[in-house]
Structure formats: structure tokens, C-alpha cells
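Pasting as-is:
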Amino acid sequence: MKRFLLAALLFATPVEAKTILFVGNSFTFGAGSPTHHYKPETVTDLNGPDAKGKLVGGVPAIFKAFSRQADLDYDVSVETVGGKGLDFHYPEKRALLDKPWDVVVMNGYSTLDQANPGNPALLVSSAKQISDMFRGKNAKAEIWLTATWSRADLTYPAGKPWTGKPITQMGKDVAAGYALAAQSAKVRGVVPAGLAWNRAFEAGVADDNPYDGISAGKVDLWTHDHYHASVYGYYLEALLVFGKVTGKNPLSLGENETVADDMGFSKPQTRALQQIAHDELAATP
């Protein structure tokens, strides 16, 4: 009888939600799209309301929605500042970040280094510094870096860092920089957002040049500035984070997934983006 009561008591104890922190910039909070303030009540914005009294939802809120649909329990927090890399967050936001998180997902500036586009040195050093901080509070913290996408505004116009190169090249260069940073910082791995965008271009799911119009049947992964992502681009980013962090297949969310429905995606668009995420994750070690 005592054993039965003890077992019943143990099984009745609620499991504590796993904490996950997102650290980044506009590519995390979803600038230029409805993603920015999507369901902010479902996550904790560590910076508090902005000047307009609004809180960030962003990719973290989409991840939260995915995890709920998968019957997973994550306590999601987000700390973002537009136009900043990890070299900013460590000294300026350390008081908010230096806690024993279970999972951390973070990204740096879109060109690796704002002053020296394409140079990974700053990302490598700052990723290690901030990762060491997180492990100082929780040695088992699961840390991921998100390698971001090619910017059309830095590829198609004249006189830009990637002018004259294929639109996929910036994504490859950024991914290579994050691979170096991941190795140096000894993190769990890299979320391949930029490479998934490249896959979407190559598969004909997304249009690769927003400057000449969007081809019929394709989505535009960029928003109006050809720099930040559209809702489709952020949705794809969130699918990849979901797949890496939870180990779940993005296709398991299905064509009736609720965020896609909220954003007005068609079922074929939803399936196509989930398939791209699945295929890229399957191709990534």
C-alpha cells in the first residue's frame, strides 16, 4: 500500500516546463512582418514593452505555438535588439541573460560582422564568450546558433558585398561562419535557416529575386525591404528551430498547423515550407 501511495504521489507531480531563451535581433523578432507582434502574451519579452507599449512575439512565439501543437511544454523567453550581434548582448544585456536556461537559441548580425561583412571572426569570439556564460549557470545548457539567410538587398543592387554572386552564396558564407562559431563555442549545433532558404529557391518553392517580381506559385521569403524575412521566411526559420530543438519532424505539424492558418497561408504553401524544413534538417548533420 505504501509503495502504491508513493508511486501515485510521484506520478501526480507536475513536470516543470523546459526553459528556452531566444537571443538575437530583427531576424529573431520578425521585423517587417506580422510576425513581430504575433501572440506576445505566449512568451516573455525580457526587454519589456517598446516605445509604443508593444512586446515581441516573433519567431519565439511561433516556436511556442508549434511546441503546444506537439504537446510539448516550453517556457519561452526572448531578448532582442535590432541591428545588434552577440558582441552587444553579452556586455549590454548580461543581467537579463545570465541565468540557468535549459535551451538557448541565438543569432548574430546578418552579415556576420556589420563593419566587415563576411568576416566570421567577431561571431566566433562573441558566440564563445556568451556560450561560456550560459554554461557557467547551467553546464548542461543546450545551445544552438541560427545561421541566417542571404539578403537580396546586398546581392542584386550594385556596389554591395555580394554583388554579382548567386543569391545562394551569402547564405553559404554565413553558414560557414556559423559552423566555425559552433565549433569554437562547442554548442549543440547550427539551425540552418539560410541553407533552407537556398533549398526553397532551388526547389521552386520560393522566388529567388524579388526585384523582378514574384513568379506565380512561388512565395517571397523576404519582406518589402528585401532584407528582412516575410511571414513565410520567419515561418521557415521557426520550423527549423522547432525541428532542431525538439527533434520533431516539421511535417508532423501538418497542413492544418495553426500559425500558418493565422498568417493566411494556403495548405500547399504550408506543406511546401514544412517539406523544405524537413529536407534541410535531414541533410544537416
